[in-house]
Specification:
- With about 300 residues, the chain is α/β, with parallel strands linked by helices.
- The chain has twelve helices and seven strands.
- A seven-stranded parallel sheet has the order 2-1-7-6-5-4-3.
- The two termini are about 25 Å apart.
- It comes from Streptomyces massasporeus.
Length: about 300
């Protein structure tokens, strides 16, 4: 973990353990955060999409951040602060700072297809919290694309320090490096990890380490070190699971894998439905194969 850039390394976008009645199990969440760090991860990102932030009450959302900080320390916690309005995102950034966090992750405005001026104003407002902001580019879900030129502008104006890149277009890594060489590129989708690591990524906001942290961290370290003899076979072994991170059912898939390896994944809140039988069978088979290969 880097002191002044806490988003570097492997930060797990944490799944949130729910009880059978769909209430949040904070004790299990605290234990999960600690377990991830014990198994080599550098930190956590609570209240991302994988953490089902959209269906949490404000009280739950705040307590999730406080729970993570109490478990592993604020310097290891970079909460997602996405919200429909800039004022609400700013409030969540302020809450993160008060809880002891050192950075936040922010989607662009996601209530509508925002234009460039709105995107810049949104990031400027949240940056006023005083915490470093890592942008999250997910044009698939938000319909707003933080293209390299826009990222360079946001960085040049001091609004962002890094970007979680989820577009799937690995070519952007090189364009971002040309336009904003000091902007930290973070791997945003598990199934392009190797490609973005080789292209110079400084971190990974990761999904599947929720279930397989040691193997995932080994893969990341080998990839960023250019050790392809280690990374490529491991990547091929894990890819049948990693690719679920880019599917609509990624939360359900990762929680199922957690259950299979002996963690507590548990249910999801509506409107997320359970996996279809074929999907469940595919996730189960790939997870059991990874376990049999000693990757759990």
């Amino acid at each position: 973990m880097t002191e002044h850039r806490p988003w570097r390394g492997v930060l797990v976008a944490t799944a949130l353990p729910l009880n059978d009645d769909l209430s949040v199990n904070y004790d299990r969440y605290a234990e999960h955060c600690a377990w991830l760090v014990e198994n080599g991860c550098d930190g956590v990102v609570p209240n991302g999409s994988l953490g089902e932030y959209q269906v949490l009450t404000p009280e739950e959302r705040a307590r999730v951040v406080e729970t993570a900080v109490a478990a592993i320390g604020g310097e290891r916690v970079m909460p997602g602060v996405a919200a429909y309005g800039s004022a609400e995102s700013r409030r969540w950034a302020d809450q993160a700072g008060e809880a002891g966090c050192r950075a936040v992750m922010l989607l662009p405005p996601n209530a509508y297809r925002a234009d460039e001026r709105s995107v810049v104003a949104h990031y400027a407002e949240v940056a006023r919290s005083g915490l470093p902001v890592v942008a999250y580019n997910n044009p698939i879900d938000t319909k707003v694309d933080l293209v390299p030129e826009l990222l360079a502008r946001l960085h040049g104006e001091g609004h962002i320090q890094g970007v979680k890149e989820f577009s799937g277009d690995v070519r952007r890594a090189y364009r971002i490096a040309e336009l904003a060489p000091e902007l930290d590129l973070l791997i945003g989708a598990d199934d392009v990890l190797l490609e973005l690591a080789v292209a110079g990524a400084k971190g990974w906001v990761a999904g599947y380490p929720n279930a397989l942290p040691r193997a995932s961290v080994e893969l990341y370290r080998a990839a960023v070190d250019g050790d392809l003899d280690t990374a490529l076979p491991l990547y091929r072994q894990l890819h049948p699971l990693l690719r679920w991170d880019s599917q609509v059912e990624f939360v359900q898939a990762i929680k199922l894998s957690m259950d299979i390896v002996g963690r507590h994944g548990g249910p999801c809140r509506p409107p997320r439905a359970t996996l279809l039988p074929g999907q469940e069978a595919a996730v189960r088979a790939a997870t059991e194969k990874a376990v049999a290969a000693g990757l759990a």
